[in-house]
Amino acid sequence: MQERRKYPRISVDLPATVRLSHHHTLAVKMIELSLEGVRFLCPMAPEINSEVELRFTLPSKHTHELRLMANVRHLFEVHATPGTPPDYRYAAGVNFMNLRENERLILDTFLMK
Fold first, then answer.
1. How many whole angstroms separate alpha carbon 54 and alpha carbon 33?
2. Which end of the chain is more exposed for a tag (fewer CB within 10 A), N or C?
3. Average pLDDT over residues 74-97
């Protein structure tokens, strides 16, 4: 099977918040990150093709909190696995929208470590 992604992704274990289109905020766990988007675990299912605001901080020498708009592209129901809280019932994949150059640089620097 041929890889369709433009950018490589890395595994992460980072807390984040997602604000859904109806202004409901969820605590989520980011599990994959790339320059193109994120996969995260969440307790409720965001709608496919909806826009969300993703807020997270990348660990580094300089703390960078990012607030990025993203489009929900994929949604999967997940089963409890060891080490995963049972309230994370879904995995969502989102693509970033309109990344600014400074946001792209922050992400790229983190991903290259």
1. 12
2. N
3. 83
pLDDT at 82: 61
AA identity, residue 7? Y
DSSP string, 74-112: EEEE----TTS-TT--EEEEEEE-S--HHHHHHHHHHHT
Cβ burial, residue 1 (10 Å; 0-12/13-18/19+): exposed
Would you state the pLDDT for residue 5? Answer: 57
Residue boundaries of the structural domains of the chain: 10-85
Do the Cβ atoms of 76 and 17 come closer than 8 Å? no
Query: How many beta carbons lie within 10 A of that of residue 54, not counting itself?
Result: 21
